[in-house]
Amino acid sequence: MSDDFMLDTDDLERRMNGAIASLRTEFASLRTGRASASMLEPVMVDAYGSSTPINQVGTVNVPEPRMVTINVWDKALVGKVEKAIRESGLGINPQLNGTIIMLPIPELNEERRTQLTKVAGQYAEHARVSIRNIRRDGMDQIKKAKNDGAMSEDDQKIWEGEVQDLTNRFITLIDDQLETKQAEIMQV
Questions:
Q1: Could you give the CA distance from residue 22 to residue 17 in angstroms, rounded to a whole number?
Q2: How far apart are alpha carbons 41 and 56 in whole angstroms?
Q3: Rounded to 10 degrees, what is the CA torsion of 105, 111, 113, 118?
């Protein structure tokens, strides 16, 4: 390989790891029939003029396997938190008890499980697209270096192979995580 060109594969790998971390966060928000505080992470509340995560306006607890509670610190925000949960698409009906919002997690029926596996598939596809975009950035850097005369054609093939191997590794990781999540959702 040429000494003139060094592709920052660590940067590409760091960016691809970011796409995987984002996918994990999205997967955590999908209900599997069990209560989890992480399922509320993507829900944002319009509080004090800005979009704020629920865990910054109240305490999120899981007192039982099928119940999540949110103890809202500011009484004025209780309605906004309830509205944010209703509009989030989680399919949960909040119940108010003063400043505490209770979220009973209903049993998932077969139709809802199938819908959730499709949503998980969409999340995985978004992650794959992110990985492919990062791959394209790496390939563009290689092509630019080749066009600038900083590397030979053989070196170009070697670098492109490295970027493709990295991409394949992360795509496989996404597919494995999707398979695991879909199995978890379909488990009764």
A1: 9
A2: 10
A3: -130
What does the alpha-carbon distance between residue 22 and residue 58 come to, in Å, rounded to a whole number? 23
Question: What is the per-residue pLDDT across 80-133, written as a single tens digit (0 to 9) for each?
Answer: 999 988 887 777 889 998 889 998 887 778 887 888 888 899 999 999 999 999
Residue 114 in tokens = 């199938």
Summarised one tens digit per residue, pLDDT across range 50-61 is 888 888 999 999
CA distance linking residue 120 with residue 9, whole number of Å: 29
Tokens 């053989």 appear where? 154
Cβ atoms within 10 Å, residue 21: 11
CB-based contacts of 46, cutoff 8 Å, min separation 6 = 52, 80, 84
Q: Are strands 44-47 and 50-53 parallel, antiparallel or unpaired?
A: antiparallel
Contact of 185 with 32, CB cutoff 8 Å: yes
Question: CA 48 to CA 76: how far, in whole Å?
Answer: 10
Contacts of 58 (CB under 8 A, 6+ apart): 70, 71, 72, 73, 77, 81, 99, 101
Measured distance between the N- and C-terminal CA atoms of the chain, rounded to whole angstroms:
53
DSSP H or E segment with residue 158: helix 153-186
